[in-house]
Design brief:
The complex is a heterodimer of chains A (about 110) and B (about 120).
Chain A: E1 3-5, E2 10-14, E3 19-21, E4 24-26, E5 32-38, E6 44-50, E7 56-58, E8 64-68, E9 73-78, E10 87-95, E11 98-103, E12 107-112
Parallel strand pairs in A: 2-12
Antiparallel strand pairs in A: 1-4, 3-9, 5-6, 5-10, 7-8, 8-9, 10-11, 10-12
Chain B: E1 4-7, E2 10-13, E3 19-25, E4 31-37, E5 43-51, E6 54-57, E7 64-66, E8 76-78, E9 87-94, E10 96-97, E11 102-103, E12 107-108, E13 112-116
Parallel strand pairs in B: 2-13
Antiparallel strand pairs in B: 1-3, 3-8, 4-5, 4-9, 5-6, 7-8, 9-12, 9-13, 10-11
Classes of the chains: A mainly beta (about 110), B mainly beta (about 120).
Chain lengths: ~110, ~120
């Protein structure tokens, strides 16, 4: 079955600390992978995407993610978080021939001052 | 600037009433989507449309209806058959890159929060 798992419902980190949000997927075809961020009461904003090529992708707001095919993972990282990064983060996977995305349940990031 | 506009931002439904959520995009995107978001459940697909005058059911289409008469517009009607409509509804659009046959990312509106009176 196709699925996306974000194992952490909530993560709390101190401002200035590093961050890693986990995303594991199960998908039969070559995956296209995405990370989106959602602030409360808002829509989703694309942080970064992986289609092919270099497995380390850079996104907006200082985020990066690494595609590891052997581990079926696409973890999101940031070296130093800011209070404005507090939001919910969603991982999604799709395929070139498929318009539909499969979404993870999201990870809520809480920043400690 | 191009984007996706959802209206209204807040909507209240009475028992037995149908309500329609608006979604308009000026990105010239081919595909449009409606998602429902409930706390702790991520996004669930209601309906999607790849071209004008065509749409397909998603995972939770029961109690909802859509139309796609124009490329720019994809309204969602929440019917009285939807017994638990309270949720945050998100509309998205996507460009189909016909040259490389790749999908581009979905772009989202700011959502409509629907509640029951």
């Amino acid at each position: 079955a196709q699925s996306v798992t974000q194992p952490d419902i909530h993560i709390t980190v101190s401002e200035g600390a590093s961050l890693e949000l986990r995303c594991n997927y199960s998908y039969g075809a070559t995956p296209y992978l995405f990370w989106y961020v959602q602030s409360p009461g808002q829509g989703l904003q694309l942080l970064l995407k992986y289609f092919s090529g270099d497995t380390l992708v850079q996104g907006i707001k200082g985020f990066e993610a690494e595609f590891k095919r052997s581990q079926s993972s696409f973890n999101l990282r940031k070296p130093s978080v800011h209070w404005s990064d507090a939001a919910e983060y969603f991982c999604a996977v799709g395929a070139v021939s498929n318009y539909q995305l499969i979404w993870g349940a999201g990870t809520k990031l809480i920043i400690k001052p | 600037d191009g984007g996706i506009t959802q209206s209204p931002k807040y909507l209240f439904r009475k028992e037995g009433q149908n309500v329609t959520l608006s979604c308009e995009q000026n990105l010239n995107h081919d595909a449009m989507y409606w998602y429902r978001q409930d706390p702790g459940q991520g996004l669930r697909l209601i309906y999607y449309s790849q071209i004008v005058n065509d749409f397909q059911k998603g995972d939770i289409a029961e109690g909802y209806s859509v139309s796609r008469e124009k490329k720019e517009s994809f309204p969602l009607t929440v019917t009285s058959a939807q017994k638990n409509p309270t949720a945050f509804y998100l509309c998205a659009s996507q460009l189909r890159d016909t040259f490389s046959r790749s999908n581009q990312p979905q772009h989202f509106g700011d959502g409509t929060r629907l509640s029951i009176l």
